[in-house]
Amino acid sequence: MSQPTNQQRRAFLAEVTGVAAATVVAPGVLLQSVANAAPRDTAVTDDVRYGMLIDTTKCADGCSDCVSACDKENGLDLMEKPEGASDELWEMQRPRWIRQVKLRNNLTGRVTSLPMMCQHCEKPPCVDVCPTGASFRRADGIVMVDRHTCIGCRYCMMACPYNARSFIHENVQLKTTATPRGKGCVESCNLCVQRRDNGGTTTACQDACKHGAIVFGDLKDPNSAVSQAMAKYPTVQIRADLQLNTGVRYTDV
Q1: Nearest-angstrom CA–CA distance, 214 and 191
Q2: Which of the four CATH numbers 3.30.750.24, 1.10.10.10, 3.30.2130.10, 3.30.70.20 does domain 50-251 have?
Q3: Is residue 114 a contact partner of residue 155, using CB atoms and an 8 Å limit?
Q4: Closest by CA position to 129, among listed 186, 170, 56, 53
C-alpha cells in the first residue's frame, strides 16, 4: 500500500516542482511568459534589418500609451523610487526607453510631439566609443547593450545624439527574465528583442498605439508593412546631418 502512495507523492512533487521552476527563478526575478513562442534556432543574419516608421500626425499630444507599454514589457514599471530620493531626482534618473519629446521646426515654427527612443543607427556612435564592446549592433540592425560587459562608464550615453540611453543608478529589487538589469549598467530600447528571438513580429509600443502611429518590420523587405509605408510617405531621420542611417524614421516632422 505504501509503495503506490510514495510513487504518487513523488509524481505530485515533481509536477509541483516543475511548475514552481517555471515561475520562480530567484528572489526578485519574474519570469516573462512567451506562450506559443518559437525560440530562435538559427543565427541572426543581415538578411533582415528591423526598424520602424512613426507617423507624427497620428501621435496625440499628451498620449503616453507607447511609453507605458514599453515600461511594462521591459520591467521598467517594476522600478521604484529609492527611499529618501526626491520626486525631481527620481524623474531625472529613472530609466526610460521611450521619451515623449517636442521638436520645433526652426524654419516654420511648427511644434511636433513624438516618441524618441534608440534610433538603431547603421553606424551607431554608442558602439564606436564603448571601450569593452558592451554596446553592439546585431546583424539584423538592432543596437543593444551586453549587461555582462558593460562597466558603466557612460561613454555611450554621451555619444548618443538622441539622449536615448538610461543608466541604472540604484540597486534593482524586481526584474523580468527577458530584461535583467542591475546597478551600474546602461540600457536602451532594443526593439523588443525578446520578441524577435521568440517568433514575435511586433513591438510593445506598436501594439499599444491605438492611433496606429507606429509601424514595425523588416526594412529590407519591400513587401513589409513598414517598407510599404515608407515608400508611400516622405520620411525623415532625426539629425539626418549626422548620416547615421537610422532604423527609426518619422513622417511629417
Answers
A1: 12
A2: 3.30.70.20
A3: no
A4: 186
Distance separating alpha carbons of residues 56 and 190, to the nearest angstrom: 21
Q: Chunked in runs of 10, what are the mean pLDDT values of the chain (253 residues)?
A: 46 39 47 58 93 94 94 95 90 93 85 94 98 98 96 98 96 91 96 96 97 97 97 94 97 79
**Residue 60: what pLDDT?**
87
The structural domains of the chain, with segments of one domain joined by +, span 1-31, 50-251
